[in-house]
Design a protein that fits this description.
3 domains; single chain
């Protein structure tokens, strides 16, 4: 005689403990509490400043902002008498500048070069350096010149396929082309170049150029003028 066991949808051993209502060994899921970091004293703050300056190209203003944020997050340690000593973060940043660990001019030069190499114009460079706390004179000294601005504008147009670099350039002169659509497209491209920090005159020249050879000659003109000291 064959005995038949009743069928069940799943065995008890197949049911996760959490679903079955019984906690796993160890009292359930472990909850890790984030270990609170010790409040900062002058030595710890100095170490943070040195580490930050070693890891990142920065400015004095950015370093001060970083240290102020760390103080807000971790607080300040107390001395043996229970008094909290307020550190002079401006003096600490100034000391790192004096030692050469922080260099606003080098930061501005590198940031300007990086942004133009990515296709951004002079206005975006100015905004980025201002946000980093770079002083007016240093921003002015490291602003991209005319040749750099033209090269960055051309780079953006190539990347976004604007003007003669786009597929629609082949049909711009055809009689059946939709002038209203072309005008709308040009307006959007001008707006994109302005948002990237480029001059309207540069955007208009590139977008209205009949051929990429005209743009190449336009860039060469600026580079020659730079070499001759006119810009």
């Amino acid at each position: 005689m064959v005995s038949h066991r009743p069928k069940t949808s799943s065995r008890r051993s197949d049911i996760p403990d959490e679903v079955a209502g019984t906690p796993r060994r160890g009292g359930g899921p472990k909850t890790r509490e984030r270990k609170k970091k010790r409040p900062l004293d002058e030595a710890a703050l100095r170490d943070l400043a040195l580490s930050y300056a070693a890891r990142f190209a920065t400015t004095g203003a950015k370093l001060e902002a970083y240290l102020a944020r760390k103080i807000r997050e971790r607080g300040l340690a107390e001395d043996e008498d229970g008094r909290r000593v307020e550190p002079d973060i401006a003096a600490l940043a100034a000391r790192l500048i004096e030692l050469g660990y922080v260099d606003d001019d080098a930061y501005a030069r590198g940031r300007s070069r990086d942004l133009t190499a990515r296709g951004y114009g002079a206005r975006r460079v100015e905004q980025a350096l201002w946000a980093a706390g770079v002083e007016d004179e240093v921003r002015s000294d490291n602003a991209p010149g005319e040749a750099e601005c033209r090269r960055a504008a051309i780079l953006l147009a190539k990347k976004r396929r604007f003007g003669p670099f786009g597929a629609e350039a082949d049909t711009r002169g055809e009689a059946g082309a939709d002038r209203a659509e072309a005008h709308k497209r040009r307006g959007k491209q001008v707006a994109a170049m302005l948002r990237a920090g480029h001059q309207y005159a540069h955007a208009a020249f590139i977008l209205d150029a009949a051929h990429t050879n005209d743009i190449d000659a336009w860039l060469e003109e600026a580079e020659e003028d730079r070499e001759e000291g006119r810009w």
